[in-house]
From TrEMBL:
<keyword id="KW-0963">Cytoplasm</keyword>
<feature type="binding site">
    <location>
        <position position="110"/>
    </location>
    <ligand>
        <name>Zn(2+) 1</name>
    </ligand>
</feature>
<dbReference type="GO" id="GO:0006520">
    <property type="term" value="P:amino acid metabolic process"/>
</dbReference>
<feature type="binding site">
    <location>
        <position position="110"/>
    </location>
    <ligand>
        <name>Zn(2+) 2</name>
    </ligand>
</feature>
<dbReference type="InterPro" id="IPR036264">
    <property type="entry name" value="Bact_exopeptidase_dim_dom"/>
</dbReference>
<dbReference type="InterPro" id="IPR011650">
    <property type="entry name" value="Peptidase_M20_dimer"/>
</dbReference>
<dbReference type="InterPro" id="IPR001261">
    <property type="entry name" value="ArgE/DapE_CS"/>
</dbReference>
<dbReference type="GO" id="GO:0004046">
    <property type="term" value="F:aminoacylase activity"/>
</dbReference>
<feature type="domain" description="Peptidase M20 dimerisation">
    <location>
        <begin position="188"/>
        <end position="300"/>
    </location>
</feature>
<dbReference type="Pfam" id="PF07687">
    <property type="entry name" value="M20_dimer"/>
</dbReference>
<dbReference type="Pfam" id="PF01546">
    <property type="entry name" value="Peptidase_M20"/>
</dbReference>
<protein>
    <recommendedName>
        <fullName>N-acyl-aliphatic-L-amino acid amidohydrolase</fullName>
        <ecNumber>3.5.1.14</ecNumber>
    </recommendedName>
</protein>
<dbReference type="GO" id="GO:0046872">
    <property type="term" value="F:metal ion binding"/>
</dbReference>
<feature type="binding site">
    <location>
        <position position="78"/>
    </location>
    <ligand>
        <name>Zn(2+) 1</name>
    </ligand>
</feature>
<keyword id="KW-0862">Zinc</keyword>
<comment type="similarity">
    <text>Belongs to the peptidase M20A family.</text>
</comment>
<dbReference type="InterPro" id="IPR052083">
    <property type="entry name" value="Aminoacylase-1_M20A"/>
</dbReference>
Length: 410
């Protein structure tokens, strides 16, 4: 097959994948599994599914290295995408329409591109008669976009996953607006909380003592002060050789504020919801701050303030990038060969990698998209054709380096 033909085929498969509506909250996983099964057949890969529950399966497309007992590499991607506001799109969001060299569609950046790039890199390596010295698994998981509880988190508890004998994982990252690739070795911890403050009620014309609003005021002041301090730190902060980045600070946002029944009645309670994302190694200190804050709110008794955790990731482990290892050295070598400039940092939100890292698998978040606006979850999400195709070449080098000569069996 000529290079041109291969490029056309890659784009065709990408567009077909975009056209499958794996959109939350009711993703069409059945069609995606059918698509992946056919794809595996076309590429000569082993195909299997791992059942997570009645409606959910992970698909594994495997390029087996028959002679190898080395640990495998896992190329992970999620199948689901987030909802769209169709009226804001310039093309139908599940069309995969190409305009001015840009492929439009939900999932073009997050992260159907990466799933296809893995497979198209494998197609080209197979055409070139490459023989991997480690087994390669391409994993397609459901439900990342709704937290991964019934997707990756569930999968990691199953023996079928352990049987994959994984030694290293590549997963999603983010686009980069400059010519520097973003590489993620950790995710920020995530704490979603609701704080319910209660107080005395009465007529809106009076000066009631010990109101819910005064407690909400104290709480908001303290939370927003924390936010301002971190914002300042981001502005001025510097790590060893570069400015501090979003993934390296803690962010707090007030995301909901409920309370009150009528304009002349002092409410007896308010509920304040906060989305908190915590910097690496900052989890315990942040929890301590929250617990102290709850105690410090002026109140008559403890029942007047309640802290509810809606989501709590717990502390998250980082992938070790300080010490040399077969996968780290191979990854870096592959990037060097492709002349990729790298910025190593922490993912500001959450990916499935956090579950993998927390049970001991080294995982790197990397979506090879430079000179590209960050449009994940946004209207008119797109990826330029040439960026998509260049990503395939990058994965070829990465896969080669990660599977050519295993130096140590770890
Ligand atoms: Zn994603």
């Amino acid at each position: 097959m000529t290079d041109n033909k291969q490029d056309e085929l890659a784009i065709q498969r990408f567009v077909e994948y975009i056209q499958i509506k794996t959109v939350q909250p009711e993703p069409d996983y059945d069609s995606a599994l059918k698509f992946l099964k056919n794809y595996a057949q076309e590429l000569g890969l082993e195909y299997r599914t791992i059942k997570l529950d009645q409606d959910r399966h992970a698909a594994v497309l495997t390029w087996l290295s028959p002679s190898s007992t080395e640990k495998s590499i896992l190329l992970n991607s999620h199948v689901d995408v987030v909802p769209v506001f169709e009226e804001h799109w310039i093309v139908p969001p599940f069309s995969g329409e190409i305009r001015d060299g840009k492929i439009y569609g939900r999932g073009t950046q997050d992260m159907k591109c990466v799933g296809i790039q893995y497979l198209e890199a494998i197609r080209r390596l197979k055409t070139a008669k490459y023989e991997p010295k480690r087994t390669i698994h391409c994993l397609f998981v459901p439900d990342e976009e709704i937290g991964g509880e019934r997707g990756m988190k569930q999968l990691l508890t199953l023996d079928e996953f352990k049987d994959l004998n994984v030694g290293f994982v590549l997963d999603e990252g983010l686009a980069s607006e400059s010519d520097v690739f973003q590489v993620y070795y950790g995710d920020r911890a995530c704490v979603w909380i609701e704080i319910i403050v209660k107080g005395n009620t009465g007529h809106g014309s009076r000066l009631i003592e010990n109101t819910a609003a005064e407690k909400a005021q104290f709480l908001l002041n303290e939370m927003l002060k924390y936010r301002t301090d971190e914002k300042e730190r981001l502005k001025k902060g510097q790590t060893a050789d570069k400015p501090l980045q979003l993934g390296e600070i803690t962010t707090i946002n007030l995301t909901k504020l409920d309370g009150g029944v009528q304009i002349n009645v002092v409410p007896d309670q308010y509920t304040l919801a906060f989305d908190c994302r915590i910097k690496p190694n900052g989890y315990d200190a942040f929890k301590q701050f929250l617990n102290d804050l709850i105690k410090r709110i002026p109140k008559n008794n403890d029942e007047e303030v309640t802290l509810v955790y809606k989501q709590d990731s717990g502390p998250l482990l980082l992938t070790d990038i300080e010490n040399s290892s077969w996968w780290l050295d191979s990854f870096k070598r592959g990037c060097e060969e492709m002349k990729c400039k790298l910025n190593w940092t922490v993912f500001p939100a959450g990916t499935d990698s956090r579950f993998l890292r927390n049970v001991g698998y080294p995982a790197i978040g990397f979506s090879p998209m430079i000179n590209t606006p960050v449009l994940l979850h946004d209207h008119n999400e797109y990826l330029a054709k040439d960026v998509f195709l260049h990503g395939i070449d990058i994965y070829i080098r990465l896969i080669e380096n990660l599977t050519n000569e295993p130096k140590f069996n770890v």
